[in-house]
Amino acid sequence: MQVNVILVPDMVQLDIAGPYEVLARVPGWTLDLVAATTAPVRTDRGLAMVPTRTRESAPPSDILVVPGGTGIDRAMLDESWLAYVRREVQAAKYVFGICTGSFLLAAAGVLAGRRAGAHWQARDLLSRFGVTPSDARLTVDGKFYTSGGVTSGIDMALKVVADAAGETTARAIQLGIEYDPAPPFPGGTPFTSPAAIVAAVNAMSAKRRAEREAMVEEAAKRLKRTKISLP
C-alpha cells in the first residue's frame, strides 16, 4: 500500500503523527508526507515536519490521508490542493480524513451526498458542501473514513488498518503502541463535558470559528461553480 499524507502549514501535528505511527507499522506499507515543496513545514504549535514528496513526485495513493488544522482552511481555497485531492481520490482504495481534514475533501466535492465527521466545533459546517455531518467518533461511508477531533485519528487509523490489512494486524499494532486510553477526567466531547467547560472552549475559539466559517462559505461558493467528476 502506498499511503500519502497531506502536509500543509499550520496543521495539527498529532493529526499527522498519531495516525502515522499506526499506519507506518503495517508490514509492506510505504508512507510519504506530501507537501507543495520539500521545505520543512511548520505545524500549528511550532513543530516542523519534513516532507518526503511533493504533489508532483508522490506515487499514486492507495490510501490518501488528510489531517486537519487551521492550515486546511487555506487549503480549501488552494486550487492546487483541490486538484491533487480530486486526482488521488479517483484511484485510492481508502480515503482517510482526520479532524477538519474532511473539509478539504468536502471542498474538493468528493464528499457530496455522504456522511462525514470532523472536530465538534466545525462539523456542522460540512453541510455547506452537501455533506451530512456525523457526530460519531468514527464515520465510514464507502471508501471514505472520517474521524472526529485530533485523537480520534489514532482510532480511525486502526480501523483503516483492520479493514485493509486485517484485524489481527491492527490489534497487534494497538498493543505494540500500548494504546489503551484512560483520560484523567470524564469528558472530551461536547456531549460528555460539563456545560461550563464547553462554553469556555467555544468562547476561546470564537474568532477562529468566524474565520473558518468565512472560508467555508467561500470554498462552498467556488465548488458550486466548479464542474467535477465525482468518484
Provide an overview of this structure.
The protein has 231 residues and is of the alpha/beta class. The chain has a single domain, classed as Class I glutamine amidotransferase (GATase) domain (Rossmann fold, 3-Layer(aba) Sandwich). Helix content is 39%, strand content 16%. It has helices at 13-23, 70-75, 79-91, 101-107, 152-165, 167-176, 195-204, 206-224, and strands at residues 2-6, 30-35, 41-42, 48-49, 53-54, 63-66, 94-97, 115-116, 132-133, 138-141, 144-147. The protein has a 7-stranded mixed beta sheet with strand order 5-2-1-6-7-11-10, with helices on both faces. It has a two-stranded antiparallel sheet with strand order 3-4. The longest helix has 19 residues, at 206-224. The mean pLDDT is 96.
Topology:
Elements: E1 2-6, H1 13-23, E2 30-35, E3 41-42, E4 48-49, E5 53-54, E6 63-66, H2 70-75, H3 79-91, E7 94-97, H4 101-107, E8 115-116, E9 132-133, E10 138-141, E11 144-147, H5 152-165, H6 167-176, H7 195-204, H8 206-224
Helix pairs in contact: 1-5, 5-6
CATH topology: Rossmann fold
| Global Rg | 17 Å
The CATH class is Alpha Beta
The description of the largest β-sheet is: 7 strands, mixed
Could you tell me the mean pLDDT? 96
What structural class do you assign from the helix and strand content? Answer: alpha/beta
Counting structural domains, the number is 1
Name the helicity range.
25-40%
**How would the global form be characterised?**
globular
Strand order of the largest sheet: 5-2-1-6-7-11-10
Q: What's the count of strands?
A: 11
